[in-house]
Amino acid sequence: MKKFSTLFLIVFCAFCITTVNAQLNTGGIPKSFVLDDLSEFFQEVIIPSPDIVKLIEEDLKSDKLSLPRRFAQLLPVGLNLRNAGTSELLDDGSRIWRLKLRSEGALAISLYFDDFYLPKGATLYLYDDSKQQIKGAFTEINNHKSRLFATELIFGDAVTLELYLPEFVTGKPALQVSHLAYAYRDVPRYDSSKGFGSSDFCEININCSPEGDGWQDEKKGVVRIQVKVSGATFWCSGSLVNNARYDLTPYILTADHCAFQYGHYASPDDLNQWIFYFNYESETCENPPEEPEIYSLTGASKIANGGNHGTDGSDFYLVLLNDNVPDSYDPYYNGWSAIDSSSSFGVTIHHPEGDIKKISTYTTPLVTYDFSGTGLPSHWEVYWTETFNNWGVTEPGSSGSPLFDSNGKILGTLTAGWASCDSPDLPDYYGKFSYHWQSNGTADTTRLKPWLDPDNTGITSLNGTTLSVTELKIKPKDDIVKIYPNPADNFVYINFINFEPSKIHPEFLGLIDILGKPVKNLYFNKLSENNKINISDIQSGIYFIKIEYNQKIIIKKIIKR
Which residues in 255-378 belong to E strands, given as ranges? Predict the structure, then answer.
């Protein structure tokens, strides 16, 4: 009977527990969830809450300066396997150690370890009081030579750590929680029924049409960064960047000021506890009713930085992730241009207030700007455009986000600005990628060029890249329309692939602009494999060919030169 009840519980848990497998882990559920005779009682430690009034007063000042968005305060813990928790020996010789940490009023909790080591066979889980949010299993694959680690947020004001050591484990584990990140804003409540998100009303989700239609590759490289520095935790944005070797080195580009808070740069230990969130977005144009599935990696090392937070240069910060990005994350390593040339249209993709991924569009040519009054041509001045779904801007938390040109290449990273949902017509300022390249100093650690062109090929512009050719070949074939040439001057052709073009009724073909407004309907006497479209009568810019077929909408971006 006991065997049956345990099996039933395992099956039941598989359906009703939200196992948020975000960081590198092996999944599963904690051992205590399937044991009938384990004690319900184990040590709980109360961590005193911070002074929220003081934090908010400080935030009111820093938020006006467009600084990285602080959302959590680090509280000292100093607990480990020896001085805290409850350990129980099981009948089979294995052992379970559990410890609950609670800090009253926290919206969410993240843990930082300054001594983390799991021997082979050991598993560590973290979960909330309801046992609905589970992180783990963390295993030896999460060990790093620094012996540092950090965990993603768990909603609520309490988290339980559970370490399971089978009898055969011979190594000695180490778990020392140095700090608890007490999140007091910018995170949803886990039981919220009205949705979540801290960004302002005008922001546009990355999968809105038409704004996000032409940026589905580039978005995969943009990450939300949980920054740790100066005793607090902040939100910033950044991007994977490609290098001239196309070897998928996991470089992340963000802003220098993201790593500098309250007079101090992030230390190497801090960087080893930064958390990088991939694919943090809504699947549709609407805000989702609950938080999207999480994909993250922990830890990085500084490679280069420059611009002194934008005060005497272009404000960039390049890090190398501790781990390669898993193929299952479907990453995209964004391209870039080190040519100091303006762009008349493009977007930024970002995480305002640490919220899900948003997109903002510009259609006014970028202008060189002296950001700090130094006379240096280090920044782009950007004005955002009202588009079909709203008027996307940037906010604190967008810092470090990439600015793309019409070809999907990074031209800059966000330093600061004045644009807001209440004043969307004010400018923002992005440190120039061309200035990042080699103008912030002569040392390799102050320039991008030595790292993104390691063989000194002289390249100044690079396309983005995704997984290997082998990996791409096994993906389902869903590209049934080819547009060429692209960019084009006077004519483009639509080549229909893998289906009969006669099945598309002519009124379901159309050309729309970047704002979603119809430019022209595309009528053909007879659809063929190659259909010629005259674009000589439209202005230069980004457009989209919209095709409705089989109750689906296909959007293809074209560029009129």
Answer: 260-261, 264-265, 275-278, 295-298, 300-306, 316-321, 335-337, 346-350, 358-362, 367-369
Residue where a domain stops, chosen among 435, 462, 489: 462
Scanning 94-188, the segments in alpha helix (DSSP H) are none
Contacts of 26 (CB under 8 A, 6+ apart): 123, 136, 137, 139, 141
H-helix segments, 268-414? 268-271
Lowest-pLDDT choice from 117-126, 408-417, 531-540, 545-554: 545-554
Higher pLDDT pick, 51 / 14: 51
Please report how many Cα atoms fall inside a 13 Å half-sphere around the Cα of residue 161, on the Cβ side.
30
> Domain containing 79: what range?
2-183
User: Residue 382 and residue 308: Cα distance in Å, rounded?
Assistant: 21
| Position 194 in a domain | no
Q: Are residues 335 and 268 in the same domain?
A: yes
Q: pLDDT tens-digit profile of 227-252?
A: 999 899 999 999 999 999 999 999 99
> Domain ends where: 440, 462, 484?
462
The tokens describing 251, both together, are 């470089």
Residue 513 sits in a domain whose CATH number is: 2.60.40.3080
Which residues, listed in sequence order, are joined to residue 46 by a DSSP beta bridge?
102
- The CA distance from 266 to 271, in Å, is 6
In a domain, 195, yes or no: no
160's tokens = 């339980």
